[in-house]
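Why should sequence recovery work at all? Because a backbone constrains its sequence more than one might expect. Tight turns favour small or flexible residues, buried strands favour hydrophobic ones, and helices have their own preferences. The token representation captures these environments compactly. In the example below, the structure is given first.
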């Protein structure tokens, strides 16, 4: 081969090498050319973890891969351009999960996806049920049938607590349960006198008489089981404690308070604009606020504590929380309708029936990052009643037509995935954490789903 030919070939190869080398290097480093923006960009990724194995992953309407079939059921898509991508996770027989998610340069966008069955076969658990009383962090139910009888219901076993002869003498409005699930306090109106009364009942046997708890009356707004045989309650805006066997009240706060609550060994109360915490064991007290909170004498007030954060509900329509940095009660939510709250792990859902807000008690990292004490709206809902959490990232609720819906909390992209769980029309719902099953009261029948989450 002649020298000038060899030189030409070498020159061509050199040009190809020096042209291709940077391209290969940039590609290996995760850079891609975006033809829409006409520039080179560092790519990102998308990581998904699903509740079931082998779920199909689509990105921008293109099938990419399936989540793994073992252990984590996850999948990582790499080298995605930093922009909004249409993500779809699906599997035959399950509701599809879809969302527009933003992928950022050098970042991995995450999603924890629970795929629920398209068909959830609810079966009859109990018939002739008028009302269901369920309790936070306890898997026992109290059922009232159409004859007025009360039953305890746990592990699909029903036991009579109170027969119709006694139960028909009162109209039950609320039930409190002890920590050991052995005793309940019934708040009721006595049919004969129309007086509000409270009764102590064992739920381990059938009761042959109603044992009235004395000293409680219509001025009592809150009762706390501090121990299985010790309660704290308010009476004429003063706070008392009482053992249930002796029924002799002892004044704890003998001056008027506007609201009170108990969390662990601490008593919290609002008095003359001061928020005070007092240890029930040591009786040591301290003022938690630097500034007086303005009390409106025409309004009602309620305190509740969750995850170490203190909340104040004013007139049932305004939520405040205690900012531990500034030592002030800050307004969180204001509505024209009554606000209800549903705590779960490190967050709380608030709803006024037509709007939903999610408040984070600590820094929240997955599937999105939110700082502690942040509040986010959750949209797309017309009406929400009797909300119940399903795990940590999903909840169930009854809509305006009485239909049961299941929704996620992930509102990235301005939308959430939700679907109708059954054709049943419900008046109450409850999620059993042990069975991981949803219970529904529909037309005086209690229905139960199979296990719906892992």
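From this structural description, the recovered sequence reads:
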């Amino acid at each position: 081969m002649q020298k000038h030919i060899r030189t030409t070939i070498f020159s061509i190869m050199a040009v190809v090498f020096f042209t291709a080398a940077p391209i290969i290097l940039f590609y290996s480093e995760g850079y891609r050319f975006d033809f829409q923006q006409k520039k080179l960009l560092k790519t990102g990724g998308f990581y998904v973890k699903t509740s079931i194995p082998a779920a199909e992953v689509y990105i921008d309407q293109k099938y990419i891969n399936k989540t793994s079939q073992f252990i984590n059921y996850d999948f990582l898509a790499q080298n995605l351009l930093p922009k909004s991508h249409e993500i779809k996770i699906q599997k035959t027989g399950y509701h599809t999960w879809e969302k527009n998610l933003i992928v950022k340069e050098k970042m991995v966008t995450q999603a924890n996806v629970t795929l629920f069955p398209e068909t959830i076969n609810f079966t009859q658990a109990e018939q002739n049920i008028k009302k269901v009383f369920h309790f936070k962090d306890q898997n026992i139910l109290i059922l009232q049938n159409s004859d007025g009888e009360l039953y305890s219901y746990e592990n699909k076993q029903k036991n009579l607590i109170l027969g119709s002869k006694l139960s028909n003498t009162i109209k039950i409005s609320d039930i409190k349960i002890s920590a050991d699930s052995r005793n309940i306090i019934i708040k009721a109106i006595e049919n004969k006198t129309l007086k509000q009364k409270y009764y102590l009942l064992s739920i381990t046997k059938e009761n042959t008489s109603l044992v009235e708890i004395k000293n409680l009356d219509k001025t009592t707004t809150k009762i706390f089981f501090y121990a299985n045989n010790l309660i704290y309650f308010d009476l004429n805006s003063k706070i008392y404690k009482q053992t249930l066997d002796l029924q002799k009240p002892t004044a704890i706060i003998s001056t008027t308070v506007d609201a009170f609550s108990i969390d662990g060994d601490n008593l919290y109360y609002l008095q003359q604009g001061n928020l005070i915490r007092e240890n029930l064991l040591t009786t040591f007290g301290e003022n938690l606020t630097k500034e007086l909170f303005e009390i409106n004498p025409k309004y009602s007030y309620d305190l509740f504590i969750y995850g170490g954060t203190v909340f104040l509900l004013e007139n049932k329509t305004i939520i405040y929380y205690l900012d531990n940095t500034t030592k002030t009660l800050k307004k969180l939510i204001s509505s024209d309708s009554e606000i209800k709250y549903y705590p779960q792990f490190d967050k709380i859902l608030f709803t006024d029936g037509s709007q939903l807000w999610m408040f984070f008690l600590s820094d929240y990292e997955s599937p999105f990052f939110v700082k502690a004490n942040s509040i986010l709206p959750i949209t797309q809902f017309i009406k929400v009643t009797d909300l119940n959490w399903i795990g940590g990232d999903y909840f169930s609720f009854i809509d305006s037509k009485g239909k049961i819906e299941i929704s996620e909390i992930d509102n990235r992209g301005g939308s959430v995935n939700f679907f109708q769980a059954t054709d049943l029309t419900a008046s109450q719902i409850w999620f059993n954490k042990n069975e991981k099953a949803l219970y529904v009261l529909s037309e005086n029948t209690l229905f139960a789903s199979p296990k719906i989450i892992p």
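A few observations help interpret the result. The radius of gyration is 29 Å.
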